[in-house]
Each structure stands twice: as C-alpha cells, then as structure tokens.
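Have a think about this chain, tokens included, and walk me through the fold.
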Amino acid sequence: MANRFSTALAAGAARTASLLGPRTMRLIARFNRRVTNPIQRLWASRLPYLAVIEHTGRTSGRRYRTPVMAFVENGTLSVVLNYGAESDWVRNVRAAGSASVVHRGRRYRLTSPRVLPAGSPELPAALPPAGDPPRDALHATLTPETPAGA
C-alpha cells in the first residue's frame, strides 16, 4: 500500500513539476527549504516513503538535513529529482560521495551517489518515469550504519 501511495505521489509531483516549469519549481524549492522542510523533518525519517538525507555543504561545511521522497529497495535509495540535479542537496551529496540517511527510524550510509535518467533499468520498477521530460533520479547504495560502541 505504501509503495502504491509513494508511486502515485511521485508521479503527481513529477507531473506538477512539468506543468510549472523549472523557474517556478526553483521558487517552490526556496519556499520548501524555509517553510515546508523544517516541518517535514519532524516525521520524514519515520515514514515508509520518506527519508532524511544528512549532508554537508560543499563550501560552508555546514550540516544539513533534507527530507526527500525516497524509494528504498534492495540496499539502494532512489529519489526523483523534481527540482533538478542542480539542487544544493544533490550537489552536496555528489561532491562528498556519501551522506547519512534516516529511513523508517534506521540510519544508513549512502555511497556511490549518481544521477540516472528516468526509466534507467537500475532504478526500481516502482519509480515512475513521470513528467515531460521525465525527471532524473539520484540513485545510491545504502548500508546500515553500526551504532557507535556496538
């Protein structure tokens, strides 16, 4: 059920992004960063179709926590890039080559991040190639993190 819901939600978000265009989506991204994201961070790490990506700024060195719609399957994470591959969080994760992810209350290490075109066979089947043009996705390997002292 959660998978169907997340697939439908991702498809709707991709269609909306296509209709609004990149300029409007950048404005929405700015609004989300300041208003929506702080609220979503309260629950995103616990829900099945969301995750929080913890990354470090490329130039500032500041730590960030970004809520995303996530498809986690078979040790991988995929995120549809409705705001594009030039979003700060995507650039930060790619530049660092890794990040931490909290999904369903569990902490993971994200490694080998790369941007794949929609419809790539490496992406999960549940990930909808929606939008016009279809949206790329960040795809990476997930490894459970071992708690300190364990």
The chain has one domain: 2-144. The domain at 2-144 is CATH 2.30.110.10 (Pnp Oxidase; Chain A). The two ends are 34 Å apart (CA to CA). Strands lie at 50-56, 63-69, 71-73, 76-80, 98-103, 106-116, 137-144.
